[in-house]
Amino acid sequence: MELRIISTPSSAADAFFQVRHHIYMWKKYHKFGSNVKNRFLEKNVKLEKAYSSQKSRGSIYCLNNPENNPCVPSETQLVNAKVIYSVAPAMGHNKESHPECNSRVPAIVSALEKMELTSKFRGSEIIELQSFRPARVDDIASVHERAYVSGLEKAMAQASEQGLLFIDGSGPTYATATTFQESLLAAGAGISLVDSVVSASKVRHDPPVGFALVRPPGHHAVPKGPMGFCVFGNVAIAARYAQRVHGLKRVFIIDFDVHHGNGTNDAFYDDPDIFFLSTHQDGSYPGTGKINQIGHGDGEGSTLNLPLPGGSGDRAMRTVFDEVIVPCARRFKPDIILVSAGYDAHCVGSTSKSAIHNRNILHVGFKH
Ligand SMILES: [Zn+2]
Q1: Residues around the ion ligand 1 (C-beta < 5 A)
Q2: Domain-embedded: residue 110
Q3: Residue 228 C-alpha to ligand 1 middle, in angstroms?
Q4: Across residues 349-358, what is the average pLDDT?
Q5: Which InterPro entries match (predicted)?
Q6: Which of 59, 126, 198, 328 sees the fewest Cβ atoms within 10 Å?
Q7: Are residue 234 and residue 287 in the same domain, yes or no?
């Protein structure tokens, strides 16, 4: 596998844009408790001051230098870590009352704090990557057509004037003036975790779990454009990055969202080296992911769609994972496993009938 070093001179500026933008948005943000809000503000102010490669316990600050490993914990930190996570809340990409709104990531961060599952409480076991770099256009273009990427960037001026745009033919996908930059950051969060987990795998046999807490979501975005609230295929971009930059050959992607990950499905439909496996509720949006959709050409057999009846619930999901997914993954022998972990199959706040509970989401997310 070819190993490419890609350079983009503007990525540091992009990261700074994000930091400043987040501070601005958090100042405007009132829905959540002041504790969480202040913590985010505090963190981001600290981030600006500490941007030049200082490290604090449990958090990784680094220079955005694409020539070096952009944002990877030290060897010592990698040896101790159980979880490495990255957060990209896309506060400027928002539409009030929309189901895919900017309160989602802060709500998760708040819950993690309450459950004492952050580095503040767990020390070196949990590391949050800070100031990771946004994805570059070349990273995005490994999955999406360049015309789409440049078209979206150009549309930002119009979004800026109008405040909000709806993208034609994409289902109800909206864009604001910051959507392009914040989508690059969401994809960058996954890429930085790939860098970290791959580095960890070189110093220990059981590398830590990486968790990207990001929006806009990605798995409906198709190679030629956005779809279903999704802008860039975050997990697909991370998969291609693992191949292109780290030389990993075989990637196994599990998508357990209640909806079919049609974008990821399409990106790798004829690729024998990326196995895409999706469980989803039969008949739900966007209507794809039938059991006979198994890949095409050289990729035939490396896509597995498992549409489940509405109401399947915990037991069905556990059975599918134990009896189908795990044997499948063992047979495929991947170099890395990526999980496209959409949580709208969860029993609380879900519009689906699948009703999976926390303990089982953790089961599928971490056991295997
Ligand atoms: Zn979904």
Answers
A1: 257, 259, 342, 344
A2: yes
A3: 9
A4: 44
A5: HDACs, His_deacetylse_dom, His_deacetylse_dom_sf, Ureohydrolase_dom_sf
A6: 328
A7: no
